[in-house]
Amino acid sequence: MDMSPRKSREIYVQMLYLLEDNDDISLDSLVSLMSVFRVSKKNMLEFFEKAKEIFNARGDFDSYLGNISEEYSLDRIAKVDLAILRVVLYELELEKIPVEVGVAEALRIANKFSSFGAGKYLHAMIDSVYKEMKHDNKMAAH
Fold first, then answer.
1. Distance (Å) of CA 2 to CA 76, 111, 133
2. Rounded to an integer, what distance in angstroms lies between the CA atom of residue 34 and that of residue 98?
3. How far apart are CA 80 and CA 14, in angstroms?
4. CA-to-CA distance for 132 and 16, rounded, in angstroms?
């Protein structure tokens, strides 16, 4: 895929949002999204495979989010914010992007797709979860 990481993240967030309600998206639905995302069928399938990978890894990330978010259960977090968090946490954990990049991308995507003020919440959540993930990884290494 020859697409910028920024655009890719936006697509993953939108796909995760769709997967939240229906984890079995049809090929016809994916083909109809090609024009929305302005990608080829091949790229669309690649994006969908990675989105499913992120979606299937959500249990690990959601347990961190649940531990951090004492005020809200996960079902009270806006679906788009949850999708943003999952994409960023996936990239922090598995693709090893710097936390600063993850926070900046979460804020950028939130400004585009989420409600006013979501950026502060996402920043705080990413920072807290990242610290906990780092702590757990250090503990596992010892």
1. 36, 24, 30
2. 30
3. 8
4. 23
Closest by Cα among 50, 132, 140 to 95:
50
pTM: 0.88
Tokens representing 113 are 């797709």
- CA 110 to CA 107: how far, in whole Å? 5
Q: CA 116, CA 44: separation in Å to the nearest integer?
A: 30
Q: What is the pLDDT of residues 101-132, one digit of tens each?
A: 999 999 999 999 999 889 898 999 999 888 88
The arithmetic mean of pLDDT across residues 32-37, rounded, is 84
Confidence of residue 138 (pLDDT cuts 50, 70, 90): low
> Are the C-beta atoms of 50 and 94 separated by less than 8 Å?
no
**What angle, 0 to 180 degrees and rounded to 10, lies between the N-to-C axes of helices 118-141 and 58-68?**
110
pLDDT value, residue 101: 94
Residues 6+ apart with CB under 8 A from 11: 3, 37, 39, 47, 51
142 or 139, greater pLDDT: 139
Amino acid at 4: S
